[in-house]
Amino acid sequence: MEQQEKRKLALVTGGSGAIGQAICVALAQAGHEVWVHANRNLAQAEAVAGTIRAVGGRAHAIAFDVTDADATDAALRRILADGPVQILVNNAGIHDDAPMVGMTREQWRSVIDVSLNGFFNVTQPLLMPMMRTRWGRIVSMASVAALMGNRGQANYAAAKAGLIAATRSLSIEMASRGVTVNAVAPGIVESPMIGQAFPVERIRQLVPAGRAGSAQEVAAMVAYLVSDAAAYVTGMA
User: Fold this and answer.
1) Could you tell me which residue ranges the Ketoreductase domain spans (predicted)?
2) What is the sign, positive or negative, of the torsion defined by CA atoms of 211, 217, 219, 224?
């Protein structure tokens, strides 16, 4: 793989999913060493890491539950044994949709737990090692639902809106240490489920480009935000 920048150690949570895979590949193509995270499906994370290694990149797989603070700490200690993580992409997230009138407590709690508490559990332990290097990039995957709302997604919108607010606050705290903190809020992105949720006609109504985005297009934005070229970009959502 072509190395474009000095190699950094990167962690991508939810790296075994469609968007996460694309991000992992993009970071590896930029010359970084990537840890591909999964929750339970370690085999899928291993497959992503194997694909990267097959074309000359450096990648490893790891599985842990971001909502379990102790398990997360243990996993991060393993990663930090290789050096400080200087690129963190918080991509882990779930949705469990229902109108709020029929939403269960578990639906509300679980979605917020992964996206928001998971963000804290992963990010906070990595901040001090990152700060010591005087260079860092943190990118979290939000959603347009956080900005516009979406029927049946009060829990998801609340979690992602909280993530954006946390991103802006953390960016202020970290700016003097050479660490940027940004959030990306993708719109409709191609996936196996998209046809059921968003028919082609609906996408054309909602999206100025008239089509869904691709995971690779999202990954390209993340790759820019973690690059040296984006050193002045922080607090963006």
Assistant:
1) 8-187
2) negative
Show the tokens assigned to 178: 């050479």
% residues pLDDT > 70 (the chain): 91
Q: What whole-number distance in Å separates Cα of residue 66 and Cα of residue 115?
A: 9
| In the predicted structure, residue 68 carries a pLDDT above the cut 70 | yes
Q: Measured on CA atoms in the order 117, 121, 126, 128, is the torsion positive or negative?
A: positive
Token readout for 38 is 């999964």
Domain ranges in the chain are: 9-230
Amino acid (one-letter) located at 102: G
3-state secondary structure of 108: helix
pLDDT, position 2:
46
Domain formed by 9-230, architecture = 3-Layer(aba) Sandwich (3.40)
Name the catalytic one among 108, 135, 156, 198. Answer: 156
pTM of the model: 0.92
Eight-class DSSP state of 123: H
- pLDDT tens digits for range 144-155: 888 888 889 999
What mean pLDDT value characterizes the chain? 92
Chain centre to alpha carbon of residue 186: 11
- Nearest one of 182, 179, 164, 219 to 8, comparing CA atoms: 179
